[in-house]
Amino acid sequence: MAAGVVDTVTTDLWRAVVDGVAVCLRRTEVPAPLSPARPTRVLVQIALAALPDTTDQDTGRQHTGEGDAAAPDTVRLAVAFMETHAADHIVLADLAAAAFVTPRALQYAFRRHLDTTPLTHLRRVRLDGAHRDLLAADPVTSTVSEIAARWGFGHIGRFAALYREMYRSAPRTTLRLPV
User: How many domains does the chain have?
Assistant: First the structure.
């Protein structure tokens, strides 16, 4: 079987086991050999046996067939949320909820797949948005403080330092550059 492909027999087996476990757990009296712990173990064993192994045996990193740069759904969901809500007040718990995982699981996924933290990535997304706005803004009617605040940076000095670190230029210089 090709990596990432689950055949119909395996799919049917999985559905049958899940349905059987659901029936057992709905009963008021569960027979001893089918206590809730046992079906859970059975489900895990079947899942491990049936579902494809998407890890690279040499590196131990997950791959999705799109190359090693492809991130899992957890990271993609969090990044999509960041990109659409970057100007909003976002905390780690918001990102984790958008990705349907715990904050710790999200931190682990970002570290593993992007070699950064979720909040550091969010800061980059916000800096990028501010950079685009600074380039497009009219220096007569716009200020660096206004644009920084729009992207969630409350402290102008901290914003300027982060901006200089990322773009090797002061934000006020970018605001005045011709478009």
Answer: 2
